[in-house]
Amino acid sequence: MPVPSFDPGDPLGLDDLLDPEDLAIRDTVRAWAADRVLPHIAEWYEKGELPVLRELARELGELGALGMSLTGYGCAGATAVQYGLACLELEAADSGIRSLVSVQGSLAMYAIHRYGSEEQKLRWLPGMAAGELIGCFGLTEPDHGSDPAGMRTRARRDGTDWILDGRKMWITNSPVADVAVVWAQTTERPDGVRGFLVPAGTPGFSAPEIKRKWSLRASVTGELVLDGVRLPADAVLPEVTGLRGPLSCLNHARYGIVWGSMGAARTSFESALEYARTREQFGRPIGGFQLTQAKLADMALELHKGILLAHHLGRRMDAGRLRPEQVSFGKLNNVREAIGICRTARTILGANGISLDYPVMRHATNLESVLTYEGTVEMHQLVLGKALTGLDAFR
């Protein structure tokens, strides 16, 4: 068999790792994003809005992209690798679109699917999988981000009901969500932290939108305010107590980021590569200069190493062998390298790199949020440091 020619779009031949169904899912999501997101994303980003969120959610539901790796209840039952490929293509359009899908599927739906009762699953999951219902995930608080054990949101019993008081911050989808998965510290031991399903419109519950963001502008972000919110006993997720519940959901979402961040990096790299081939200075395309080629080579190296790492973690997840520490490897490396690729791409585009006529600065600013959420750089470094040394440096 002859050696295939070198493909600048797939220099390592990583498509060889994918079967026809993988490729079909990837290409379907890529085509949808090209048709429904790319023509409008610069305008949405500039205005700081996502006016067609529910319309896009329903279309993503039709694609099977919501709760994609879950089974039953209208979910697609896709492999982890297929879900990852979808995340990559969605974030190649914009991190806000991938965040919509991740929060819906890997956080809210995953929590209900894994820890909910059968009644809760039947009530919420089919509509969420179809994009008819929107969910959000309330863990982060104004004063407690990296340390969820310090959460101040409280749940106390009142007869058979629960009363919730507290506040959550930086919650994707919350202003438009039909249901919020809220994690609260119960006042009774040994219950500890419990998860609650809070329907929109419940008295005492509100979700004001957060404005004045300079990152993830094409994403709806808000707070969760709980002021004496009364919930029936069947609102609690029955199958988990303690922080392992929300942390397991976060681990699932981080896996999608490992892939998604490489989508933002790929788009920025491709933009820089095309620009370098056509932009002329000193009488020749800037891609013909050694320093520009060095930048492009380094960007391609980190981009495709990151995609290869994502593939490896996806195969481990499909085999049931993926550890949280390994997800930390992927999240830490891929988001950090994606930001580096975007910044280098910006230098190749020069002043044009800051214009919304090109995608690079938009991806770079979005990735600053992705770098922070689902675990900061420092937290993942400490996760890996503990795993490598056996010594806990968190406190």
Summarize the structure.
With 395 residues, the protein is an alpha+beta fold.
Describe the structure.
- By secondary structure, this protein is α+β, with helices and mostly antiparallel strands.
- It has three domains: about 15-135, Butyryl-Coa Dehydrogenase, subunit A, domain 1 (Orthogonal Bundle); about 135-240, Butyryl-CoA Dehydrogenase, subunit A, domain 2, CATH 2.40.110.10; about 245-390, Butyryl-CoA Dehydrogenase, subunit A, domain 3 (Up-down Bundle), CATH 1.20.140.10.
- About 50% of the residues lie in helices and about 15% in strands.
- It is built from eleven helices and eleven strands.
- Strands 3, 4, 5, 6, 7, 8 and 9 form a seven-stranded mixed sheet that branches. It has a two-stranded antiparallel sheet with strand order 1-2. The chain has a two-stranded antiparallel sheet with strand order 10-11.
- Strand 6 and strand 7 form a beta hairpin.
- The longest helix has about 35 residues, at about 245-280.
- The radius of gyration is 21 Å and the shape is globular.
- It starts with 19 loop residues before the first helix and ends in a 6-residue tail after the last helix.
- The mean pLDDT is about 95.
